[in-house]
Amino acid sequence: MAGASGIGTETVRALAGAGAQVVVATRNPAAAEPILRGFPTAEAAALDLADLRSVRAFCDGWSGPVAAVVANAGVMAPPERQVSAQGWEMQLAINYLGHFALVHGLHDALRAAEEPRVVVVSSGAQRLYGFDFDDPQFERRPYDPMAAYAQSKTADVLLAVGISRRWARDGIVANSFEPGWIHTNLTRHLSRATMQAVGAMDEEGNLLTPDYYKTPAQGAATSVLLAASPLVKGVTGRRFEDNRESEVMHGGAEFTMSGVARRSIDPVAADRLWDYAHGQFA
């Protein structure tokens, strides 16, 4: 899992603090060292989800079973279209395709565990846009930072659905969740106008914390629940928020504070996306 900042850090603290062996997979392992101090069961390893060579090296170097993969690396709304080492639009590359490659590379290690779990971090942005199968890389349509982010987070929910449909026979369960609104490095690309519009910044550029914002620890709570709690043993293919399963929304694109869009858990879309991702690695 990525755990050098934000809710990832709090997930590390909760799991390692309970005695779990935790590997913080991050582009810069040195950045995780301050977090790992005091947790003898935690360590850091190099992993760049924007580069398949790094993902393959990480998976090839793994030994032993994996009880849980927490897929929580992410990038949000860079203003200009960027591409990964493989030429993929960067948000889709890091938020979805990199995680897809990672869990596939660790499939045998997950299957070897007693009760293996995959936890995928999504976002409320999945309520705004579905996955555009006609042009997911923004190669023909104008690049829209938030649309690109939203479709990558829809893809994350569908990833959990896809895993639950294909790997249940291996005993692997997978669920996604929404951490909520939190001040973390994820929002570094958002404009001042956007931050002000959601009440998270004043006119001088100082951060504000609206009542609906959470702390990183509160945002990580659902991650820890899905990764380790016996309360959700055997639960798979679901989407959670605030430590409970999300209500399914039946409408179209709209701004709401909770719920999962029906298209984000559609098994037909999950199967189609699974095939699309496989095609990218061919």
UniProtKB/TrEMBL annotation:
<dbReference type="InterPro" id="IPR002347">
    <property type="entry name" value="SDR_fam"/>
</dbReference>
<comment type="similarity">
    <text>Belongs to the short-chain dehydrogenases/reductases (SDR) family.</text>
</comment>
<keyword id="KW-0560">Oxidoreductase</keyword>
<dbReference type="InterPro" id="IPR020904">
    <property type="entry name" value="Sc_DH/Rdtase_CS"/>
</dbReference>
<protein>
    <submittedName>
        <fullName>SDR family NAD(P)-dependent oxidoreductase</fullName>
    </submittedName>
</protein>
<dbReference type="Pfam" id="PF00106">
    <property type="entry name" value="adh_short"/>
</dbReference>
<dbReference type="InterPro" id="IPR036291">
    <property type="entry name" value="NAD(P)-bd_dom_sf"/>
</dbReference>
